[in-house]
């Protein structure tokens, strides 16, 4: 196969030449650099390359090229080369919210941007291009398969295995049992294919229909603890748990993290996190999680996968956490960071567009980029109502889609009134989203009214889904929780006498301490949590400071 192409388009010849020359110096050895001076010529060339099955890794478009009226250049380029990353070249001095990069990034219309001029080159050209090329590489399929799996692709178990390997960043290949390659692999592994999936490691190890724990152990993770004793046990390896692990282990606490799945939590399932401090072009959730996990490991934290906490009891000064395999680990203190699950819409096309116009959870970070757009919010609770109002400050129109017949059933009166008064905010009751439109970013929604068989297509630039979250706290029955199951901490626990009911100490609980002394909660699982990666990380770090305070006084 010929070298992947970096494709540039801009109508300023000197700029185009300089960019091609600078890119050539760093990437020219293993990439071909092609340039065109107009979107029309560029599309002709891209069409020809698509016809020849040539791989285009990047399309870099000058801002004017991307914006020319009547020529949706980046859209057409993406249709021709769907895996090519799109890069917008923008003026450095236009450092305002109206800079086209702001909206294009928020709506997933481009993958990254370059500032013009891109000096110093190492920082402003080579670094962002290297990063976006690294993100492009997996779309070619793995050049090396550390693990090969033979089995049906679309079963729940297959999905779990694929999700696990993808989130761990392990290159793998999937083969149908009925194909020649699948049959050959089964033969090599000494299997007749009566039990699938068969998982073949590069080392030659073979697993037949392996459990999650078996595979995690084979990948080098610890999957059982025995009856260990630690300074601190952290329940959950999402952002809050991983942050707590990094700070606790780096500050000398003997720390164990328990996680039933893959490290990263909800953040690990997000294709791109754009609002985490220090990553202006965003970072893949899996990448962020793997970095944090590595950091916790380097500081000496112990991680156990394929185990969940199923109970907690107090025995004198020790807190005993019972795990799903029946073992009980003992600790002086516990940080509960078991997070939540967002209820999903379950519409496959919309799931595929998460981050490209479809957003789960709070809308604040995206609101400004919605200027002039048609925006929809699904949900009927206070968070959906608040998000609709925030978005209506910028969007051309906001439509709140409510499944039930009454907006006031679950939303506070003051929000209902504000919504009724907002001129660009409409409410559609008894309405469900049944499908999405758009192949690489959201372009519209398909709606159905209760009782109707007909559907209606509406244009939509963004959809915010806020249909509720469920905290993972069923196992923690001893701690005070709110009526939705979120854990109460600190001030929220205080009764009329300034202490929680049944609290055994004269001191009040510390900021993130639960109603069980020495047990802290951090991140999304906490009552009134912010539900952001940064706040979960912040609370994980703060929880460790509070653990130190608790241990000092204890
Ligand atoms: C699709 C999606 C996209 C998102 N995008 C963004 C974004 O762009 N920016 C942003 O700021 N936020 C985003 N969020 C929200 C953000 O991911 C969460 O706020 C954050 O992950 C919360 O971290 P946490 O550690 O508190 O909980 P979680 O991430 O929920 O992690 C909890 C962990 O605990 C584990 N666990 C559960 N029960 C148990 C148990 N009994 N024992 C042991 N472990 C257990 C879970 O398996 C999980 O790994 C997104 C969320 C989703 C779902």
Descriptive keywords:
binds flavin-adenine dinucleotide; 554 residues; 15 helices; 7-stranded mixed sheet; alpha/beta; single chain; 26 strands
Mean pLDDT: 91
Global outline? globular
Biggest pleated sheet: 7 strands, mixed
The proportion of residues in beta strands is 15-25%
The level of helicity is 25-40%
Number of helices: 15
Radius of gyration: 26 Å
| Termini gap | 66 Å
Instruction: Give the class from helix and strand content and strand pairing.
Output: alpha/beta
Name every ligand kind in the structure: flavin-adenine dinucleotide
Number of strands: 26
List unreliable stretches of 5+ residues: none
Plain-language structure description:
With 554 residues, the chain is α/β, with parallel strands linked by helices. The protein has 15 helices and 26 strands. Strands 10, 11, 12, 13, 14, 15 and 26 form a seven-stranded mixed beta sheet that branches. It has a five-stranded parallel beta sheet with strand order 2-1-3-4-5, with helices on both faces. Helix 2 (39-51) packs parallel to helix 4 (73-80). The mean pLDDT is 91. The chain binds flavin-adenine dinucleotide (FAD). Flavin-adenine dinucleotide binds next to helix 10, strand 11, strand 16 and helix 15.
Task: Give the secondary structure arrangement, pairings included.
Elements: E1 5-9, H1 13-27, E2 32-36, H2 39-51, E3 56-62, H3 63-67, H4 73-80, E4 85-91, H5 100-106, E5 112-116, H6 121-136, E6 147-150, H7 156-168, E7 172-175, H8 180-188, E8 198-201, E9 206-208, H9 212-218, E10 229-235, H10 239-250, E11 255-259, H11 285-298, E12 302-305, E13 309-315, E14 318-323, E15 328-336, E16 340-342, H12 348-351, E17 358-360, E18 374-378, H13 382-392, E19 397-401, H14 413-421, E20 425-428, E21 431-437, E22 444-449, E23 456-459, E24 462-465, E25 469-471, E26 519-521, H15 533-553
Parallel strand pairs: 1-2, 1-3, 3-4, 4-5, 6-7, 10-11, 10-15, 11-12, 15-26, 17-24, 18-19, 18-24, 19-20
Antiparallel strand pairs: 6-8, 8-9, 13-14, 14-15, 16-25, 21-22, 22-23
The chain binds flavin-adenine dinucleotide.
Flavin-adenine dinucleotide (FAD) is lined by residues 235-241, 258-261, 265-267, 269-270, 273-275, 308-309, 337-340, 342, 354, 360-361, 472, 475, 523-525, 531-534, 536.
């Amino acid at each position: 196969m010929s070298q992947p192409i970096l494709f540039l388009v801009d109508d300023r010849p000197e700029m185009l030449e300089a960019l091609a020359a600078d890119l050539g110096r760093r990437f020219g050895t293993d990439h071909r650099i092609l340039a065109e001076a107009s979107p029309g010529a560029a599309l002709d060339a891209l069409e020809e390359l698509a016809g020849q099955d040539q791989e285009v890794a990047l399309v870099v478009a000058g801002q004017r090229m991307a914006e020319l009226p009547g020529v949706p250049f980046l859209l057409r380029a993406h249709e021709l080369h769907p895996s090519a990353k799109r890069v917008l070249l923008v003026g450095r001095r236009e450092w305002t919210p109206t800079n086209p990069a702001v909206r294009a990034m928020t709506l997933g219309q481009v993958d990254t941007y370059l500032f013009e001029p891109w000096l110093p080159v190492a920082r402003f050209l080579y670094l962002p291009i290297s990063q976006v090329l690294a993100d492009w590489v997996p779309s070619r399929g793995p050049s090396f398969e550390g693990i090969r799996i033979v089995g049906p692709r679309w079963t729940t178990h297959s999905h779990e295995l694929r999700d696990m390997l993808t989130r761990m960043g392990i290159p793998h290949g999937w083969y149908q049992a009925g194909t020649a390659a699948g049959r050959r692999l089964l033969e090599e592994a000494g299997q007749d294919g009566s039990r699938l999936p068969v998982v073949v490691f590069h080392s030659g190890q073979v697993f037949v229909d392996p459990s999650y724990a078996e595979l995690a152990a084979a990948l080098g993770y610890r999957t059982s603890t025995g009856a260990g004793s630690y300074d601190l046990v952290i329940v959950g390896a999402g952002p809050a748990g991983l942050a707590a692990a990094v700070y606790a282990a780096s500050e000398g606490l003997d720390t164990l993290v328990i996680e039933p799945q893959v490290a990263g939590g909800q953040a690990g399932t997000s294709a791109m996190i754009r609002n985490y401090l220090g990553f202006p072009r965003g970072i893949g959730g899996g990448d962020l999680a793997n970095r944090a996990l590595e950091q916790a490991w380097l500081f000496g934290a112990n991680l156990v996968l394929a185990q969940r906490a199923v109970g907690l009891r107090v025995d004198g000064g020790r807190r005993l956490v019972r795990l799903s395999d029946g073992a009980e680990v003992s600790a002086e203190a516990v940080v509960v960071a078991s997070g939540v699950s967002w209820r999903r819409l379950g519409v496959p096309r919309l799931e595929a567009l998460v981050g490209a116009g479809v957003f789960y959870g709070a809308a604040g970070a995206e609101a400004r980029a919605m200027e002039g757009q048609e925006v929809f919010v699904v949900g009927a609770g206070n968070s959906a109502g608040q998000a609709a109002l925030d978005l209506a400050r910028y969007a051309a129109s906001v439509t709140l889609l409510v499944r039930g017949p009454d907006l006031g059933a679950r939303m506070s009166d003051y929000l209902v009134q504000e919504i009724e008064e907002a001129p660009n905010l409409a409410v559609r009751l008894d309405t469900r989203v049944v499908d999405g439109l758009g192949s690489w970013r959201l372009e519209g929604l398909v709606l159905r009214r209760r009782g109707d068989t007909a559907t209606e297509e509406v244009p939509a630039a963004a959809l915010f889904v806020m249909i509720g979250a469920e905290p993972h706290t069923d196992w923690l029955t001893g701690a005070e929780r709110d009526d939705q199951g979120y854990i109460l901490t600190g001030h929220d626990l205080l009764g009329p006498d300034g202490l929680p009911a049944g609290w055994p100490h004269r001191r009040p609980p510390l900021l993130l301490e639960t109603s069980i002394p020495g047990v802290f909660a951090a991140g999304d699982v906490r009552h009134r949590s912010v539900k952001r990666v940064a706040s979960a990380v912040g609370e994980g770090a703060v929880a460790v400071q509070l653990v130190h305070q608790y241990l000092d006084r204890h």
